[in-house]
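Narrative of activities, Objective 1.

The group set out to show that a structural description can be obtained from nothing but a protein's sequence at a throughput compatible with the screening campaign. Below is one input-output pair from the validation batch, recorded exactly as produced.
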Amino acid sequence: MEMTAPLVEDAVRRLCDAWHGMMADNERCLAMNGPRSRSAAAAVGGNALLLVTVYRHEEECTDVALMDPRTGETVRRMDGLISKRGLHACAGGDMLCVVNAINGVLSLVDAATGHVTDLTPGPTTVTPSATNVYSGYTLGHVSSTGVHKLLHVYDYNDKLSSNRNNYEYSSEVLTVTGRGGEWWRQTGAPPMRVEHKITRGSATVDGVVYFLADATSDRITDAHGRVVGSDSVAAFDLATEQWNPNLITGPLTESNGNHPYTVRRDLALTALAGRLVVVHHNYASKTIELYALVNSSNTLRAWTKTHELPLTTILRGWDKPACGPSEPMKPGRRGGLPKRGRTAVVLPTKEQVKAAIEAVYKELVGQPLMMLEDGRIAVLVRGKEGAVRVYDPKTGVCEDVVRVGRCGNIVGVYTGCV
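Output recorded for this entry:
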């Protein structure tokens, strides 16, 4: 017994030393991999990341990055991922892909490694007689089946048609399995001319892709030729692969009757907190109004105004009164009359020059991107350049997170791991 006690104490001491050594190794490991672990955690569940594209004119390629909207931290960079024109980067759920608008060839991107896997889908269903094809792609996730589908909406001229100036619309869909061999399936024309080329013209919620009316048309009609409101919304169900034949009446038309079509260019779509939201830039009242769709059934649809973001807080350049000339402009170099035989030169005043400079740098668009966990809203602002800001509705504070530059854009939301 006298020999046992020292042996036990020695064993306990060795065990404690080993335990402390293991804990020290764990602490070193956590210190080395902490930033990566936080970045990976940020992409799980509701902590989504923004898919950013930046085009570089010198190299004629596009860099793709995943960015944390809370801090502006670049979680993953994929420089030169898109090296040709006509390629579109898409994000849907936990999948990233790049698609070629010319031939529909699809490539999957592993966000963790940057590895690109080329797939070979079946031929596109676009008619061979189509010319001047303009495409828009949306990658969505169907939660009921767990599959990802790529929706291709396009407009085109038919060279066999007698009216070469009339654009026609159609669409096709592809199931993205990651194995290749899938075929594009024709899904027909949307129930109205839709905005499919601009990111903020569409949004995806619960496997349904919503589109605003086309902003380039003087007026929009439905499939029956009836004129519809400027804020009408068309819906495509990825699960059934069908367009809803009934348009959704927008919040402005619903509350105030038919609006002039000039309102359309002040509208956008987004998805916030799992709901479809119409964004209205009300420049007259200097607010950005957010209307959420609270009932999406076919029989009853209703909108509710959830936020009125102060435009002067979100966008730069709106906090000052518009500058105007203090007096009418006069011909001549110093306001005098020109000499005989010379053309009168009208020079702007200092106030007009200042107003012109401010107009160039005034930010015009504030596009909400996502609702953060604490209720703040990440917003992409566009003017001469672009930036991501986070607005807190509780305090009214709007903070700059990161600048995306003139050639940068936010093209999607990614919820996978990195």
